[in-house]
Automatic annotation (TrEMBL):
Residues of the HTH crp-type domain: 130-198
Residue span, Cyclic nucleotide-binding domain: 15-116
MF annotations from Gene Ontology: DNA binding; DNA-binding transcription factor activity
Transmembrane segment boundaries: none
Keywords noted in UniProt: DNA-binding, Transcription, Transcription regulation
GO annotation, cellular component aspect: cytosol
Protein name per its UniProtKB record: Crp/Fnr family transcriptional regulator
InterPro entries with a match to the protein in the record: cNMP-bd_dom, cNMP-bd_dom_sf, Env_Response_Regulators, HTH_CRP, RmlC-like_jellyroll, WH_DNA-bd_sf
C-alpha cells in the first residue's frame, strides 16, 4: 500500500503483536493509521449470541481501520492479530500530512477503500439472497483477486480457515464444510491435505 520508506519518512513506528493481541478495540477513537508488515490481522465483532462476525482479514502491505480515522468516529470492530504480526503505526496527524503532500498515495487509499466498500455491498447482497455454495465461491474468488493468494500446480491456495469462511459469509462452520465438499464433488474446488484450492 504505502511504501515503508515513505511511512518512515513521516515517523511511522513498527510494532510487534503476538497471536490474539488486540491492536485496537471496538468503541475507541482512532489515533493511528495501521499497515501490516507481516502476519495477519482480522477486524471483527460479536453479536448478542456471542457469535463472531469477521468484517475483514488483512495481510502483508494491507492497511486497516481507516474509515473511522477519516470520520473521527469510534471503531465499529476490534482489530486482533491472528498470528504474530508486525505493523506500522503512523499518527493520525502525520498520516493526514502524508496524504496532503503525496496525492498519488491519496488516490491509492481511495481505491483501497472503494474496493472494500464494493466487496461489502456485494457480500451483503450475497448473504441476504444466495445459497451457501454461491456465497463461499464469491468469497473465495474475491480472496483470489484481493488477497493475492498463491498459485501452484493445484490452483490457488485459499488462505482462509473454514471458521473464517463461515464468519465472513454468515454461515455456520458445519455448513461451510459441507459446502466445500459439495463444491469439490462438482469439480469447482480441490481439497488436498485438508487445504482448499480453486
Amino acid at each position: 500500500m504505502i511504501s515503508p520508506e515513505l511511512l518512515e519518512k513521516y515517523s511511522a513506528v513498527m510494532k510487534s503483536f503476538g497471536k490474539n493481541d488486540i491492536i485496537f478495540e471496538e468503541g475507541n477513537l482512532p489515533t493511528h493509521y495501521y499497515q501490516v508488515i507481516s502476519g495477519e490481522v482480522k477486524m471483527s465483532n460479536y453479536n448478542d449470541d456471542g457469535r463472531e462476525f469477521i468484517q475483514g482479514i488483512f495481510y502483508k502491505e494491507q492497511s486497516f481501520g481507516e474509515p473511522p480515522l477519516f470520520l473521527n468516529q469510534k471503531y465499529p470492530a476490534n482489530a486482533i492479530a491472528v498470528d504474530e504480526s508486525e505493523i506500522f503505526l503512523l499518527s493520525k496527524s502525520n498520516f493526514m500530512k502524508l496524504l496532503e503532500e503525496n496525492p498519488k498515495v491519496s488516490i491509492k487509499i481511495i481505491e483501497n477503500l472503494a474496493q472494500r466498500l464494493y466487496y461489502k455491498s456485494v457480500m451483503a447482497a450475497e448473504m441476504s439472497t444466495q445459497e451457501p455454495e454461491h456465497r463461499v465461491l464469491k468469497l473465495i474468488d474475491h480472496g483470489i483477486a484481493y488477497f493475492n493468494f498463491k498459485k501452484d500446480s493445484n490452483g490457488y491456495l485459499i488462505n482462509f480457515t473454514r471458521q473464517q469462511i463461515g464468519d465472513l459469509t454468515g454461515l455456520r462452520v458445519e455448513t461451510v464444510i459441507r459446502t466445500i465438499k459439495a463444491l469439490e464433488k462438482k469439480g469447482v474446488l480441490k481439497i488436498i491435505n485438508r487445504k482448499v484450492y480453486r
